[in-house]
Amino acid sequence: MLIVTDLKKYFSQGLWRRSFVKAVDGVSFTLQRGQTLGLVGESGSGKTTIGRLVVGLLRPTEGSVLFEGINIFGVSRRESLNLRRKMQIIFQDPEGALNPRMRIGEILTEPLKVHRLVQERYIKDRVADLMAMVGLEAELYHRYPCELSGGQNQRVVIARALSLEPALLVLDEPTSALDVSVQAQILQLLRKVQKQMNLAYLFISHDLDVVRQMADQIAVVYRGQIVEQAQTATLFNGARHPYTKSLLSARLTLGEMV
Ligand SMILES: Nc1ncnc2c1ncn2[C@@H]1O[C@H](COP(=O)(O)OP(=O)(O)OP(=O)(O)O)[C@@H](O)[C@H]1O
Ligand SMILES: [Mg+2]
């Protein structure tokens, strides 16, 4: 369903913009419906940039992204609107993603109207269904984001993404800003809706334990490249690349400390 080939993104930098940061430097992978690929790697390794390229928020310096057989950077504006709908990205900070002046009900109504996915008279029912699906009480419909907890707001963000009936979700550290107990609930919710809607996930995290719970396969990103990719169990049983080994052992050392 998703085929990423030799993706590169160089950002120019410096006073005269003559030098480049190779944020992503030749990344390839594929992803099937219903599957999760985890992306792990240290801060600045290029994970977020990969995520933004995959959903078309950034144009690559080189390389291609094929989604359901379509080159996402080679389509007309109209087609691209429909493609964007099917590929949603969710970030760490839900408050930043939600308009503070809109009530939860309005936030969830808007995309349904823009994309005309549901007839006007069924919109309210659809919003109620979405809220139930992500575990939000109906009474929150009239509240504002500032009146909700971080976990509840992330549920709103997830509901809004699901309202567009996507096929792929890029989840960029979706639980990193949440308490550990809330984190577990959100991960559980993500697993549930993935099954229900047969979604493909590109799951980005610096937390190996979180990725281990979520991913079928894990790709390890180091300085803009995938240095190792394997089935989750295989990677945890015997990482080959020295960088992956150091990631795994750093995690063990931390575990021993607490
Ligand atoms: N818009 C931009 N302009 C210039 N440089 C950028 C831009 N976006 C990212 N970079 C650089 O690209 C590199 C990769 O950044 P990216 O945000 O993808 O890393 P990351 O793996 O997501 O890190 P983190 O774990 O901290 O979120 C970094 O060196 C970053 O400074
Ligand atoms: Mg990032």
Primary descriptors:
Rossmann fold, binds adenosine-5'-triphosphate, 258 residues, 10 helices
The count of domains is 1
Ends: how far apart? 41 Å
- Ligand list: adenosine-5'-triphosphate, magnesium ion
The percent range for helix content is: 40-55%
- Side-by-side strand order of the widest sheet: 6-7-8-3-9-10
What is the second-level CATH architecture? 3-Layer(aba) Sandwich
Number of strands: 10
Molecular shape: globular
CATH superfamily: P-loop containing nucleotide triphosphate hydrolases
Q: From the helix content, strand content and strand pairing, which structural class follows?
A: alpha/beta
How much of the sequence is in beta strands? 25-35%
Structure in words:
41% of the residues lie in helices and 25% in strands. The chain is an alpha/beta fold and 258 residues long. It has one domain (2-257): P-loop containing nucleotide triphosphate hydrolases (Rossmann fold, 3-Layer(aba) Sandwich), CATH 3.40.50.300. The strands form two sheets. The protein has a six-stranded mixed β-sheet, with helices on both faces. Strand 9 and strand 10 (225-231) form a beta hairpin. The longest helix is centred in the C-terminal third of the chain and has 18 residues, at 180-197. The structure holds adenosine-5'-triphosphate and magnesium ion (MG).
Question: How does the SSE layout of this entry go?
Answer:
Layout: E1 2-13, E2 19-31, E3 36-40, H1 47-54, E4 62-67, E5 70-71, H2 77-86, E6 87-90, H3 94-97, H4 104-114, H5 123-133, H6 150-163, E7 168-172, H7 180-197, E8 200-204, H8 208-214, E9 217-222, E10 225-231, H9 232-237, H10 242-257
Parallel strand pairs: 3-8, 3-9, 6-7, 7-8
Antiparallel strand pairs: 1-2, 1-4, 4-5, 9-10
Helix pairs in contact: 4-5, 4-6, 5-6, 6-7
The structure holds adenosine-5'-triphosphate (ATP) and magnesium ion.
The site of adenosine-5'-triphosphate has 12 residues, from strand 2 and helix 1.
